């Protein structure tokens, strides 16, 4: 049995995108307000109405063009660029050059958390003081 797909088999493209997103047919069916059998039929269809295709694209979180232009080779080429050693990969990060020291940022967040805690503690003390004043007034 061959797994080679026809170039414009939209249903199979939807199926592969759904699988790559680790989504079951039931989940896609629920997002579209239908049942799993309808998704199975749709994925076996070579063509799909444009309006339905837009709904499916939205449910999958991709564009209609992404579905229409999907190819297995493109997916493999995309992921293979992550291993390029000449820094021309998918995101072209090159080497890591931080413009800040990560520990400095961590300590800043610790200081911010400490200040927030102190403000929260002071607010609680003020609340207790106010409640005690109310009790003494009675």
TrEMBL record:
<protein>
    <submittedName>
        <fullName>Transcriptional regulator, XRE family</fullName>
    </submittedName>
</protein>
<feature type="domain" description="HTH cro/C1-type">
    <location>
        <begin position="14"/>
        <end position="67"/>
    </location>
</feature>
<dbReference type="InterPro" id="IPR010982">
    <property type="entry name" value="Lambda_DNA-bd_dom_sf"/>
</dbReference>
<feature type="coiled-coil region">
    <location>
        <begin position="103"/>
        <end position="134"/>
    </location>
</feature>
<dbReference type="Pfam" id="PF01381">
    <property type="entry name" value="HTH_3"/>
</dbReference>
<dbReference type="InterPro" id="IPR001387">
    <property type="entry name" value="Cro/C1-type_HTH"/>
</dbReference>
<dbReference type="GO" id="GO:0003677">
    <property type="term" value="F:DNA binding"/>
</dbReference>
<keyword id="KW-0175">Coiled coil</keyword>
């Amino acid at each position: 049995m061959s797994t080679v797909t026809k170039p414009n088999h939209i249903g199979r493209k939807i199926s592969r995108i759904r699988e790559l997103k680790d989504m079951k047919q039931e989940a896609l069916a629920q997002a579209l307000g239908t049942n799993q059998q309808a998704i199975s039929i749709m994925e076996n269809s070579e063509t799909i109405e444009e309006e339905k295709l837009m709904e499916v694209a939205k449910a999958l979180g991709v564009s209609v063009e992404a579905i229409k232009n999907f190819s297995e080779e493109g997916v493999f080429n995309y992921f293979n660029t992550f291993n390029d050693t000449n820094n021309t990969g998918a995101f072209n990060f090159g080497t890591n050059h931080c413009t800040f020291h990560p520990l400095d940022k961590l300590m800043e967040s610790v200081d911010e958390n400490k200040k927030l805690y102190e403000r929260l503690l002071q607010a609680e003390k003020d609340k207790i003081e106010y409640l005690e004043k109310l009790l003494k007034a009675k």
